[in-house]
Amino acid sequence: MLLDTLPDLYRHSSEADLRERIAEKKRTLTSSLLILAHHYQRIEVVAVGDYVGDSYMLARKAAETPEARHIVFCGVHFMAEAADILARPEQTVYLPNATAGCPMADMAPIDDVLLAWQELEHLGLALETTPVSYMNSAAYLKAFCGRHGGLICTSSNAGSAFDWSFKKRPRVFFFPDQHLGRNTALAAGMSESDLVVWDNTVPGGGVTPEQLRDAKVILWKGHCHVHGRFLMEHIDQVREQYPGVRVVVHPECTHEVVLKADAVGSTNFIVKYVEEAPSGAAIAIGTELNLISRLAATHPDKKVVELSGQNCPLCSNMFRTTLADVAYCLDRLGSGNIIKVPDDIKGDAVVALQRMLDLQ
To answer: Is the pLDDT of residue 4 over 70?
Structure first.
């Protein structure tokens, strides 16, 4: 996708003018336009979304809305790719800001994944290993999973994805977030001795053939730079500052932080956790700052704070998308900001994504 410079008309427009421009497009296009907004988007971008949710919920909405000819995904690149993979031939998917990527997804380049898989094939382990990729991954990795009997998961259904996988084969190779993989495996009753971490920056992944044979889960050495910032001492500090506070964190946090928190779950889980908390509750959240700020604003009867204080866990890639980007994208439907996954990749990737959507 070509990168276009945002014209002055949009960059210098007021927020009110941009909202009206977007509203007019929605009125004109009605059900043929679908705007999806991830929880981590700016509050003004979330406000124009037809649906707001985590990547799992939005992937479902994209797949369940056949009347939408234009799907505008306010998120990052891998999310728009997933929507295009699931889209019908007559649907077109757009990413309002083409520079919105995901560093975690970039930590599992397909060439390195193929080298790791070749090692498993050499050891005779590939046929007894199911590749499972987090939604936060490129289309090439999703296709790899589909091609080799695996599937995709999100933080909402990683446990179900593991259950599905172990019914078929005795081992899982999980990409690209080691923390979500570890937290999911340990929650399922496995121990640390059942897990190994494949480091694609060193020969052989930094693990021995014996370790690979003994492992139930092979974790790719990737992480989220936002959720990795939260530390155990942050929980101690917030509990001292706000007596009685409840701490809820995302499963991309380290296992030590997850163990110390009061609750752990996906972004949708965190939203519901705050919604269902009683008035006057104090809640410290370990996830992306835009979501925390919006929850604090929409629940003024509760004390909603960011877990790490001054750490500012902002996803700069999510933050790239502005209201001006959305307005410019809508004015150029059919000619710009289009996300198109190659057909040969889409064929295998849709298999892996459909397996995710079929999970109970």
So the answer is: no
